[in-house]
Design a protein that fits this description.
The chain has a single domain, classed as Rhopdopsin 7-helix transmembrane proteins. Helices cover 77% and strands 3% of the residues. It is built from 11 helices and 3 strands. It starts with a helix and ends with a helix.
Amino acid sequence: MKADAERKNHSVVMEFILLGLSDQRELQELIFVVFSLVYAVAVLGNLTIITLASLDTQLHTPMYFFLSNLAFLNICYVSLVVPKMLTNILTGSKSIPYELCAVQVYVTVFLGSAECLILMMMAFDRYVAICNPLRYNTIMNRRVCIKLAVTSWTISFLVTAIPLSLLWPVLCGPNTINHFFCETPSLVMLSCEDTSQIETMMFTGSIFTLMVPLFLVLVSYIRIIQAILKIGSAAGRQKAFSTCSSHMTVVTIFYGTGMFMYMQPQAQHSPDKDKVVSVFYAVINPMLNPIIYSLRNREVKGALGRVLQRCKVFWGL
C-alpha cells in the first residue's frame, strides 16, 4: 500500500528534460546536420532493402526475408529516437512528455531484443545454407521462416516489455535525463526506490536476449567455419565466407554495444559513455546495416537494377 501511494505521489511528473549530446550551440548545429543526414540514409537504405526484397523474385529467400524484418526494425528504432532529438535542437527545447519518454523506453528495449533474436535467426539461416545445402530449401521453407520471425518478435515482447511494465521505477526529482533519448539505464538513475529488482531484470533479460542468442550465433559460425575449411577450392571458400561476412560485421557492432549498455552494473554506468554507445546502436547501426548488406552484395545490386529497369518501362522512359 505504501509503495502504491508513493507511485501516485510521483505520477504528477508530466515531462522530462533531455540534456542531449552537447550544450554548445555550434556543436548542436553540427549534430543536427549530421544526424539529419544519418537519419535520411538509414530510412532510405532500409526502405530500399524492404522494397527490393518485396518486388524482386530473386530476393524471395529466407536471408532477405529476415533482412527485411531487420530493416523494418531499424526504421522503427531510428524513427523513435532521432526525429524528437532533431526537433528539440531545432526549437531549442529539451523537454519530452512523460508518455513519449515511456514509449521510447519500452519500444527501444523491445526492438533491441528483437534485433538480437533476428540476427540469431539469420545466423541459423547461414548455418543451414552452408552446412546443409542440399536440405536448405526443405528446412528453411517460407512457413518455417515466418514462424521463426513471429517467435523472435513474441519472445522479445514477453521478456522485455511485460517485465519492465511490472517493475517501472518510481521516479524522483530532478526530472533531468543526461541523454539524447529516454533509455532504461538513464531513467533508472532517477529512481527514488531500490533499483536492485530492475537491475536484476535488465541483467536477466540481457542473458535471454543478448547472451543466449550470441552463444548460438557463435556456435553457428564455428560450424560454418568448419564447413568452409573443408571446401577444396580457395574460390569456393571465399564465396562461402562472403555470404556470412556482412552478417558477422553487423553482429559484432550490435552485440558489442548492447552488452556494454545492458550487462554492466548500474553503478558503473557513465552518462557520457552511455550516450556515445547509444549513438552507435540507436543511430549509426540502423544506417550501416543496409550499407553493409548491399555495397558488396551482387544480388542486391542486381535486384536494384532490375527494379529500376521495370520502373523505366512502366513510366515509358
